[in-house]
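Now for one specimen:
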Amino acid sequence: MKKYILITVLFFAFAAAAQTKTSTEDSLLLASGSGVSEEVEATFKSTRIVNAHSVQTVGRHSLDFRIMHRFGALNSGLYNLFGLDIASMRMGFEYGLSHRLMVGLGRSTEGKTYDGFLKYRIFIQHRGIKNATPLSVTILGSTSYKTLKYGNPRDTFWQGKVDYNLQLLAARKFNERFSLQLMPTWVHRNLVETIDQKNDIIAIGIGGRVKLNKRVAINFDYFYTSTNQLGKGYTNPLSIGIDIETGGHVFQLHFTNSRGMIEKQFIGETNGKWSKGDILFGFNLSRVF
């Protein structure tokens, strides 16, 4: 728990220190005598960093059709064409109810899982001489229902297939090329597989974006959870992706050690290790209408 607190404090201290520096845009506002602050746009280009949600929400009355695709591990060998013969996916729809509030529904082949979420932007980063807001802060609540048949008496208890997730997403766009996000997370699993797993998981995530040019950026996200919460054989998820913007599409190629594409899966059920070559190639495709 001390590690979680330390990371959180360092992040907010870093953001506060950055806020005290006068940017070029702020200097121009000061020179012109304008006291108007302006909203910082595109902290991240999408509602996802790689696996993790970003602070962004879909625009008001906009619909985002999203496909998340994941192949098998690269170390599965030539017989499986280094994972390309093994595939899982999540397909979902996300709708902006307002400038700050969005709702999403999806279905994953992993566990034949249905999920839904609500996401609300509490604060939006602003820059300017007056009324500047150093961070964007978004709250995310989600639930999922696993419909895969266990083949044993646990099938009779539908409550055991329901899981919940609550996250606070805090991000800052430091300049046009670099954004950083912190993600304190709580995941509750109604039913766990073994006695050494915890029903409640407390994790801390970190994600970032480095923009290379107008249309290409490198993203990453990582979640740290102490091993005594996950159980034997499970580990922390690390994902690295390249965002490519093509008109109305955002296309992302990525590598990760997690098959799951919702919080309950990639935070609590990742068993691949980068050091052993358990690296999965995949892509995310987003089309906004």
